[in-house]
C-alpha cells in the first residue's frame, strides 16, 4: 500500500511539472506578436542558448545565409533561412537565429520583407533579455 501511495505522489508531482511546462510553452506561443511596417513577426530566446534554433528544423549550410553581422548579445553570427520554413497551422516563415534569439516573420500572400538588420536585431536582443529578467520559470530549473 505504501508503494501505491508513493507512486501516486510521484505521478502527481510529474503532472504538476508537466502543467507548469505546458503553461510556459503556452505563454511563449500566445505572446503578443509585434508589427513592424505591417509585417507581423515573433521572436524569443533560443531553446538552449548554446546553438542556432531553427524552430525544430535541421538546416544545412546551403539552406542558410549570413546576414553580415554578429549578435551583440551572444557574439554569434546571425543567419537566416533562405526559404520560408513551415511553422505550423499551414504557415511558412523566414527564420533568423543566433545563439540567444530566434526571430521569424510569417510569409503573407507571397510578400517579401526587408532582411533583418543589426539595428532591429539589437532591439530583439534587448527585449528577450528584458523578458528573461522578468520572473519566468526556467525549464532547466524545474527538471
In short:
The protein is an alpha+beta fold. It contains three helices and seven strands.
What would you note in describing this structure?
With 143 residues, the chain is α+β, with helices and mostly antiparallel strands. It has two domains: 1-30; 33-135, no CATH class. The protein has three helices and seven strands, in the order H-E-E-E-E-E-E-E-H-H. The chain has helices at residues 2-29, 118-133, 139-142; strands at 34-36, 39-45, 64-70, 77-81, 85-88, 91-97, 101-106. The longest helix has 28 residues, at 2-29. The radius of gyration is 18 Å and the shape is elongated.
Write out key terms for the chains shown.
single chain, 143 residues, 7-stranded antiparallel β-sheet, 3 helices, 7 strands, 27% strand, disordered C terminus
Amino acid at each position: 500500500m505504501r508503494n501505491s501511495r508513493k507512486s501516486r505522489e510521484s505521478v502527481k508531482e510529474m503532472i504538476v511539472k508537466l502543467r507548469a511546462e505546458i503553461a510556459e510553452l503556452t505563454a511563449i506561443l500566445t505572446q503578443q506578436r509585434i508589427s513592424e511596417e505591417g509585417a507581423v513577426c515573433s521572436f524569443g530566446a533560443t531553446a538552449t542558448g548554446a546553438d542556432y534554433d531553427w524552430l525544430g528544423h535541421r538546416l544545412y549550410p546551403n539552406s542558410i545565409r549570413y546576414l553580415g553581422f554578429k549578435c551583440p548579445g551572444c557574439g554569434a553570427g546571425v543567419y537566416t533561412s533562405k526559404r520560408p520554413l513551415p511553422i505550423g497551422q499551414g504557415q511558412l516563415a523566414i527564420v533568423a537565429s543566433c545563439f540567444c534569439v530566434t526571430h521569424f516573420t510569417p510569409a503573407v500572400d507571397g510578400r517579401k520583407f526587408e532582411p533583418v538588420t543589426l539595428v532591429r536585431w539589437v532591439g530583439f536582443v534587448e527585449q528577450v533579455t528584458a523578458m528573461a529578467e522578468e520572473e519566468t520559470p526556467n525549464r532547466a530549473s524545474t527538471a
